[in-house]
Amino acid sequence: xxxxxxxxGLSKAYPTxxxxxxxxxxxxxxxxxxxxxxxxxxxxxxxKSTLLHILGSLDIPTSGxxxxxxxxxxxxKPRELAHHRAQRIGFVFQDHHLLxxxxxxxxxxxxxxxxxxVHAEDRQRAEDLLKAVGLADRQTHVPGxxxxxxxxxxxxxxxxxxxxxxxxxxxxxxxxxxxxxTAIGELLHATAREQDAxxxxxxxxxxxxxTCARRMRLVxxxxxxxxxx
Length: 229
Prior knowledge:
The protein is an alpha/beta fold. The chain has helices at residues 48-55, 78-88, 104-113, 120-132, 148-160, 178-195, 206-209; strands at 4-16, 19-32, 38-41, 63-68, 89-93, 166-170, 198-203, 214-219, 222-225.
């Protein structure tokens, strides 16, 4: 089914000893599946991660509103919000956040465990996802036995485990070489299309941004059309 993300007037500010520090100011986004991916550009410290954390229901804005498929996470109770986040949102972070003591397939299955018991069909899906990201022969390897690109592929498989409506990627190629970065970018776009998921990629890489149908840029806390990447 098609999905839609709408955000209006999102702002985020933090108190400091010298006054309030605005990070996001009146941010608006409209994104529907089928429109292609959205790249959010900006240097480190521009507020990209803060914006993604809000859209992913990991943080709350100081003001403004947003909804995913007409449902506002800001109106949910904690238990309902946790379920929404686990079921409807997939995260891919620059630092992977894989548990070092777990194998690749166990890390992927963690996403399912957040929603309840893991069944045989869940393990089959995890195996299929690892195969899809080129790691069929690395299922029993722990993160320390994988390269940076392979760990990122495990993180992508984990993010897709619950068939999310929204796939959020925060600097997914920041620590990768050019070849691995290209492969990861292609994989993100392909899997989002196959799952009909919304895809938002925050990056400082103009090369990765150029692969997205839409580009916006955070400047002074405000999000504006980025033009050609």
